[in-house]
Write a structure and sequence with these properties.
- The protein is α+β, with helices and mostly antiparallel strands and 224 residues long.
- The protein is built from nine helices and five strands.
- Strands 2-1-3-4-5 form a five-stranded mixed beta sheet, with helices on both faces.
- α2 packs across α3, α6 packs antiparallel against α7 and α8 crosses α9.
Length: 224
């Protein structure tokens, strides 16, 4: 049954306007983005199938152009629209954390990192460079590796911190395996980076590990 035949109070768009976006399920939010379904399949039905196919919204957002367009009813136009929405979200969050003290906005930083790192099939190591008020002044993807290993060089990190005249830094990398627990190598690397940056008076505030929707903080574990 098409959504236009549903009772008005049950339609996703009308519910969003009346109750707010947070009241809707993942599939209902996605259905509003899709706008239309397929013959014999409502937009909500199609949205549920997409979430199931890719495992989650995170998986859907990280889907390649080829995989996304392979789904019946999807295509390059919808893929482009989805990527535009994601990039606007990243930029909006980026603007917000640039205006706030990162130490008092940990959830905002987490959301920002999820949008950049969750769902990637390869490991990425990035740095958020901060000023003396702990506001983000730059973000850089410093290293990119394979599924299980990334080579990170402290000397290069120090050079980039000096380039941005950073007073502090937050590190983050993803675990494509889906396990957010830091490895021994992650812990050793964090301490090596902290020691190298201390020589140029740059503080390491945190190191986050992103695995799907989970984000682990070294600082919260007392590991920085």
């Amino acid at each position: 049954m098409p959504i236009t035949d549903w009772p008005v109070d049950e339609r996703p768009r009308e519910r969003l306007l009346k109750q707010g976006a947070a009241a809707l399920s993942d599939a209902e939010l996605l259905a509003i983005f899709l706008r239309t379904g397929l013959p014999g399949k409502s937009a909500v039905d199609l949205a549920r199938e997409l979430v199931q196919r890719f495992g989650s919204l995170t998986g859907l957002f990280a889907a390649s152009r080829q995989d996304f367009c392979a789904v019946a009813g999807m295509g390059e136009a919808k893929f482009a629209q989805l990527q535009a929405v994601l990039e606007m979200s990243r930029r909006a969050l980026g603007e917000e954390i640039a205006e706030r003290d990162a130490l008092v906005s940990p959830e905002l930083v987490r959301d920002y990192l999820r949008l950049h790192l969750a769902g990637l099939g390869h490991e990425v190591f990035l740095s958020l460079f901060l000023d003396a008020q702990n506001r983000v002044i730059a973000r850089e993807e410093l290293f990119r590796g394979t599924l299980t290993q990334t080579s990170v060089y402290p000397r290069e990190v120090v050079k980039r911190a000096l380039h941005h005249n950073a007073a502090a830094i937050i590190f983050a990398h993803n675990h494509p395996s889906g396990v957010s627990e830091p490895s021994n190598a992650d812990q050793l690397l964090t301490q090596a980076l902290k020691s190298a940056l201390a020589l140029v008076d740059v503080r390491v505030l945190d190191h986050f590990v992103v695995a799907g929707s989970a984000v682990m903080s070294f600082a919260e574990r007392g590991m920085v």
